[in-house]
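Example record used in the benchmark description.
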Amino acid sequence: MRTGHLPVAVFLFLLGPSALAQAPVTTTAPAPAAKPLSTSLGMVVFPAKGQTAQQQSQDEGECYAWSKGQTGVDPMTPPPAAAQAAAPPATPSGPVADGSRVAGAVRGAAAGAVIGEVADNDAGKGAAIGATVGAMRGGAVSRQKQAAAQSQAQAAAAQQEAQQKATQQEQIDLFKKGFGACLESKGYTVK
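Model output (structure tokens):
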């Protein structure tokens, strides 16, 4: 026996059987099959005449294109951004000059002048106090009007959004009807 091979043999002996074993084989899971169009649309399609998965995929593609052409709807394409987010009109956050303060001040000054003349024999002092109170009341009325207008704008925006969603759902339902009718004519059961 040669002495050069002895250290290698001793080394392999000390490592044990794991040194002689092969490197572990790594297997990768097959890539998941593409999701069928029908599943993406929330529909279940059964090949009633024994069609293959490849044939079903081809038929679904043809029926998708046919239904899209007939209805003008493509459920896989999101609606335009303008239709998605119609922002309500911006309302100013500060006080709005709607004349409520001025009108309140005028009414308050008139009432204050009358009260001041009767009570204190000083119409000017009464008018000043009345104008101040009237302006404050007018400001409160102005804020109430502004809050009501803002509330109406929000309600209108919410109603418009609900109408858009309902219209989009009607279009998708129409598309699904066409898609299903096409597949049924090719021998599939559609639910």
